[in-house]
Structure formats: C-alpha cells, structure tokens
Amino acid sequence: MIVGWPCPDAAAPAGTRDEWALVFDRGRARRVLIAPALFDEHNRLRRFAAETMRRLDEAGIDTMLPDLPGTNESLAPLDQQSLGGWRMAMAAAGRHFAATHVLALRGGSLIAPDLPGWSLGAIAGTSLLRQLLRARVLAAREAGREETQEALLEMGRKAGLDLAGYRLGPNLIDDLQHAVPAPHLITIAQADLGGAGLWLRAEPGESPEQSAALARRIVQDTPA
Length: 224
Known about the structure:
This protein has helices at about 40-60, 85-95, 125-140, 150-160, 170-180, 210-220, and strands spanning about 1-10, 15-25, 30-35, 60-65, 100-105, 115-120, 160-165, 165-170, 185-190. By secondary structure, it is α/β, with parallel strands linked by helices. It folds into two domains: about 1-125 and about 180-220, Rossmann fold (3-Layer(aba) Sandwich); about 125-180, no CATH class. The mean pLDDT is about 95.
C-alpha cells in the first residue's frame, strides 16, 4: 500500500510536506523502517526491498519504505537536499510509523535513525561519491571530453554537480565526503544472502532467494 506521511520541511507553511511511503502495515508489534539505498542504487534495489517487505509481512512484521525528499515521487528539489535533512526525514518517518527497528540498505546506513536494526552492504559517503564521480568521468571520456574527479569535486563544492542523472547540491556533496555508516547497526554480510549484491547489476533486478534470506535473518533477530 502507498500512504502519505508528514516529512519535515522548514520552507512549508505547516513545517512539513507530504511524502509517500510503500508500507505493509497491519498494526503489528514488530515494525521495521527501511532506510533506502541512495541514487541509482536505490533504483537497482527497490524491487529487492519490496520483495523483502512482502516476506516480512508474511512473517508477521510490518515494514515501511519512505520516499526521501527529492527522490522517487517527491516534489522537493534534489539539489536542495542534504544528508542532515534526510536523517531528519528518516527520524520523522520512524516516529510517524512507530518503527521499532531499521533496515538500512547500502547508502541508507548514512541516514538511518537511532533505532536498533541492521545494515546490508553499508558504504561510506566518500565511496558512494567516488562511484558517482567515476561514472561521470567515464561518460565524459566516451563523449570526447576530459574531466577529472578532483576538478569535478572542486566544482561540486561550489555549485553542485550532475552525477549519474542526479543534480546534487554543494551541501549534499560536502556531506557525502564526511559521512560514515551508522555504527549501531548490526552488519549483515552479502555473502550470508547468497550471490552478488543486486546493486552491482547494470539494471534493476530482483532475487527472491536473497530477499527470503534477508527476511529470515530479520525474523530470527526479532522474535515475536
């Protein structure tokens, strides 16, 4: 089910703006907030996340996957977002949905709220930013232009950058250079799910087997 939730927005008259969330919510005691992967990795992992949520629903656990401001169906401009703002959004979503746990996917570990839970494939902000910069440098080279990560980063700190189809503002670029995964989350190794991480694929994909393995681990760690 798709539902709305009040996301903090200092520019809005009421101090919040409506964002959307995919939820499997039957009002049960165990409630897991999904901190999504960021940028293109979110597209690659969304089907995986949704299938994991279905498996958890079958096991008696409610789940919520909120849109971050500036992503998916959000009308907020991406170039005005920051990791700090996304952390506030995730914390607000956790309170709104009365989450008891959080599951952070990849870059979601950079914005996870202070709830017990797990991280899968956690990645530092510098590594995530480096991937985006590398993709732009390669695309420029194929188009006959020469760009360097160092020059792009300097430009991005001042005026923002278009990276992998996303317009990142200076604040978000600066945040990514210093962000580290939330240390309080239990690390789930990709090897425990079997197969390579779906974020490594060129196109969005799914793996019912990996989703089932991840759901089993969460169920195991959150006894009824």
